Amino acid sequence: MSAPPIGIIGGGNFGWGLAHAVERAGREALLWSRRPQRAGTEHIELVSGPGALAAAELIFFAVPSPYVATIARELGVHLDGGHFLVHISRGVVGDDLLGLTQVLRSETPCRRVGALAGPLVADALITGAPSGGVVASRFPEVRAAVREALGGPALRLYSTDDVTGAEFASTAVGLFATAIGFAQGHGLGPAAQAMLATRAMAEAARIGVVLGGKHETFMGLAGFGDLLAAVAGDDRPELAIGRAIAENQPLEQIGSIGGTYFEGLESAGRIAAYTRRVKLHAPVITLCAAAFAREIPAEEAVAALMSREVGEE
């Protein structure tokens, strides 16, 4: 009996990247998108509606976080508890910073859910360049299914059961990668970028632990490893978006850079508001939120970052 196809929702670069990774792993992909942007291949079938994805056991959500609930609700009427749902979005929802696995569980009958995190970029998935990531799920069968569907000699996938930590780390790295691009746009060199990345991830870890995640998740591939790839210059869209913000390009134009939806602005504001409410010290995230929303001049944000009081390492 042949293996079931892999379902993918989203016709952007990441959706197609996942489809090509599935194809390289020797599996069939069913891709549903309202705007697929390109033609299918021998092993990537474009389907006309969410009902066709019920033939898959594992379904990936490669759509921005604001759209996950609506799409999950539309898809959920075709699914049952036998399906696995995994998202790759870098976003949180609501005032309490809920991860999208909670949204998938609330909007569908599926219980076995997970998230892909780490330094996965669409171009590497499309071309098969060496890459790696983390699959987070409390269900071993979900982690195994994702590794079987995507893994190969050039794509190493590690596992964790810390879904909360991996989801928030991924969201935070998306935000911080934008901040790194912003710093680059203002001429900050490697040492300043390293300082920013280190302080930012320390903040993310503190918040993540309060949310229920594990500190070590933020120090691993889902957190620091992912941010290290951004600092090294892996050409993810968030870097270009950060540089565009530094150049004062109009916010309404920035979201189209690299064919990606810019989740960093919404995430920054939401996380900054949460830290104020629960009285967590998060100066880097607060500055990012203000700078991205153009509430303070870019030069003032850079000066504030560099003028923070120095403490013990």
Automatic annotation (TrEMBL):
According to the UniProt entry, the coiled-coil residues are: none
Record's keyword annotation contains Lipid biosynthesis = yes
User: Family per UniProt?
Assistant: Belongs to the NAD-dependent glycerol-3-phosphate dehydrogenase family.
Per the database record, which ranges form the Glycerol-3-phosphate dehydrogenase NAD-dependent C-terminal domain?
Answer: 162-302
Lineage of the organism: Bacteria, Pseudomonadati, Myxococcota, Polyangia, Nannocystales
- What is the protein's given name? Glycerol-3-phosphate dehydrogenase
Instruction: Return the EC number.
Output: 1.1.1.94
Q: Which organism is it from?
A: Nannocystis pusilla
What keywords is this UniProt entry annotated with? Lipid biosynthesis, Lipid metabolism, NAD, Oxidoreductase, Phospholipid biosynthesis, Phospholipid metabolism
Reaction catalysis annotation: sn-glycerol 3-phosphate + NADP(+) = dihydroxyacetone phosphate + NADPH + H(+)
Note the superkingdom of the native organism.
Bacteria
For the Glycerol-3-phosphate dehydrogenase NAD-dependent N-terminal domain, which residue ranges apply?
52-138
What the entry lists under InterPro entries is as follows:
6-PGluconate_DH-like_C_sf, 6PGD_dom2, G3P_DH_NAD-dep, G3P_DH_NAD-dep_C, G3P_DH_NAD-dep_N, NAD(P)-bd_dom_sf
For this protein, the record's SUPFAM superfamilies field holds: 6-phosphogluconate dehydrogenase C-terminal domain-like (SSF48179), NAD(P)-binding Rossmann-fold domains (SSF51735)
Q: State if Isomerase is listed as a keyword.
A: no
